[in-house]
Design brief:
This protein is an alpha/beta fold. 44% of the residues lie in helices and 16% in strands. The protein has two domains: 20-49 and 291-388, Alpha-Beta Complex (Aspartate Aminotransferase, domain 1), CATH 3.90.1150; 56-289, Type I PLP-dependent aspartate aminotransferase-like (Major domain) (Aspartate Aminotransferase, domain 2, 3-Layer(aba) Sandwich). Bound molecules: pyridoxal-5'-phosphate.
């Protein structure tokens, strides 16, 4: 017996349960079509909602910035100083989102790890939606606060938990995903805000899948619901619709100022790289100039979801361009994904623990980069594989 045998056994168990993650290798830029393991396939996988990951304007500004400023930030901002580029990006993001201030992080994941432990600690309580993203859950755990999960998108359950528990703690935080990435449903933020207001609790939303997707011209979930100034903290990412990499925290300036003092991934990890920050600035330019890409994304999503329903697929409760195709057991979802790949469509199966047991699915990510013809080719492949496997 070697001391790593248990890992080999765990991996074999994952493989026989159809839950082993096989990671494909991409040999082309992100876009509607990809070269995956050497085969040209239609891309239904990425979070590149607006097609910005390989947009000529973003590529050009990243190159220009590298020529002028080099590639890296050198060290953490609190020690080596902060580049004008990052300051400029934060100003532009705050103005784009209509908030007092914004701060950037290396990723959406680290933005959550920075924010939650800065706001609550051991004497405090967090009310967290049961289906919140892993990075929220990890941020909650890191904070040391008591974590109380309320039922998914259920404001009544949230209020019951508050009434039963609030008095036992010093401070409280309500945290929810904006768009839930596996089902594509949207948090009932106006109702959650009313509860937060009634009990005077800090409210935080992680809008990773809403940034660049929801609201006017992609300004996010707070704009979508007209809740400007009411949500204390809005976390976002620039790795999805913005097509680059980087996390955002937007909201009240006092909170942003506090994160510069107490956000550990800000204090102990270097900033976004130069080309990332420059490309993100150009993404803001594009979104401020025109709503065309966001409109195209929603037109594509509406068309695809309606056609999938007509074909007889169950697309769950989605309200966004995220389109889950519910299949049930993980091995069926994996087989479906393999057959789609053979038919020239790249759409990954998602199973436990990312989604609950028995709720495995193919998740289709629609993008503004898809043409009508692309969507029709994808629908054709779903129709033939769905028929072959007896799903429709
Ligand atoms: C994707 C995602 C993140 C992580 O964002 P990265 O910038 O890729 O680290 C965080 N929260 C939610 C809800 C997400 O969907």
């Amino acid at each position: 017996m070697s001391k790593t045998d248990w890992i080999t056994q765990e991996i074999e168990a994952l493989q026989s349960a159809g839950l082993y993650n096989r990671i494909r290798t991409i040999g082309s830029p992100q876009g509607a079509w990809l070269s995956v393991d050497g085969k040209r396939v239609l891309n239904f996988c990425s979070n590149n909602y607006l097609g910005l990951a390989n947009h000529p304007a973003l590529v050009a500004s990243a190159k220009k910035a590298v020529d002028e400023l080099g590639v890296g930030p050198g060290a953490v901002r609190s020690i080596a100083g902060t580049m004008t580029l990052h300051v400029e990006l934060e100003k532009r993001l705050a103005s784009f989102k209509g908030v007092e201030a914004a701060i950037t992080f290396q990723s959406g994941f680290t933005a959550n790890l920075a924010t939650i432990p800065a706001l609550v600690g051991k004497e405090d309580v967090i009310f967290s939606d049961r289906l919140n993203h892993a990075s929220i859950i990890d941020g909650c755990r890191l904070s040391g606060a008591k974590i109380i999960a309320y039922e998914h998108n259920d404001v009544k359950s949230l209020e019951e938990q508050i009434q039963a528990n609030l008095k036992d703690f010093r401070r409280a935080l309500i945290v929810t995903d904006g768009v839930f990435s596996m089902d594509g449903d949207i948090a009932p933020l106006p109702d959650i805000y009313e509860v937060a207001k009634k009990y005077d609790i800090l409210l935080m939303v992680d809008d990773a899948h809403g940034e660049g997707v929801l609201g006017k011209g992609g300004r996010g979930i707070v704009d979508h619901f007209g809740l400007h100034g009411k949500v204390d903290v809005e976390v976002g990412t620039m790795s999805k619709a913005f097509g680059v990499m980087g996390g955002i925290v937007a909201g009240k300036s006092v909170i942003v100022e506090w994160l510069r003092q107490r956000g550990r991934p800000f204090l102990f990890s270097s900033a976004m790289t130069v080309p990332d920050a420059a490309a993100c600035l150009t993404a803001v330019d594009l979104l401020e100039d025109s709503t065309q890409l966001v409109d195209k994304l929603w037109d594509n999503a509406k068309y695809f979801k309606a056609e999938m329903k007509t074909l007889g697929f169950n697309t769950g409760v989605t309200e966004t361009p995220i389109t889950p195709v519910m299949l049930g057991e993980a091995p069926l979802a994996q087989q479906f994904s393999r057959e789609l790949y053979e038919a020239g469509v790249f759409a990954m199966a998602i199973g436990f623990p990312t989604v609950p047991q028995g709720r495995a699915r193919i998740r289709v990510m629609i993008s503004a980069a898809h043409s009508q013809d692309d969507l029709d080719k994808g629908l054709e492949a779903f129709k033939s594989v769905g028929t072959k496997l007896g799903v429709i």
